[in-house]
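Recap from last week: sequence in, structure out.
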Amino acid sequence: MAVFTSCKRLGDMQGVSPPSTVSAMTSKHMKALVFNLRYEAQGVISVELRPAEDGVEFPRVEAGAHIDLHLSNGLIRSYSLTNPGESRRYVIAVLKDKNSRGGSSHIHEQLRIGQTLQISTPRNHFALDETASHSVLVAGGIGITPIYSMLQRLRDLGRSAELIYCARSRAEAAYLESIEALMTSAQGHPPPWR
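Predicted structure tokens:
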């Protein structure tokens, strides 16, 4: 098992502010359009969802939050959101589990750009403590998804953080390049991965 670690102070982001408008949706379910599918790592794709109706925004994403996808095969599966502070799109990452009971395999094999599906409004049972002066974030495999969201939020707040990210290999480490860029922009030099 490879261990990727980075310990550094996250720099301030200049000129970044949260979205000024947030949807006042009262429904617990929303209709979403599959806008993009992207390869993130071996066996992992990200799914970008946008509101299916023009002029509608999703509720703002909080670091650590997740949504439920209501799949066309009748299954409902929860996935962490990876794009904190946004309301015009939701991004999740899905590992194709070799022991899938129909959720991840359906997303990888059947979900296509242009399709619509029902999603829940975000829930956050894994909220980030934004007041901590220093955070140590630990992730393994696809468990990076809520942690990646938290790391981005800590960067936006100018907070100090360490990330310990474990994966079977670099090829299976989702968001690794984005995390490296995030940490480099915060510190001014690449992270010291081991």
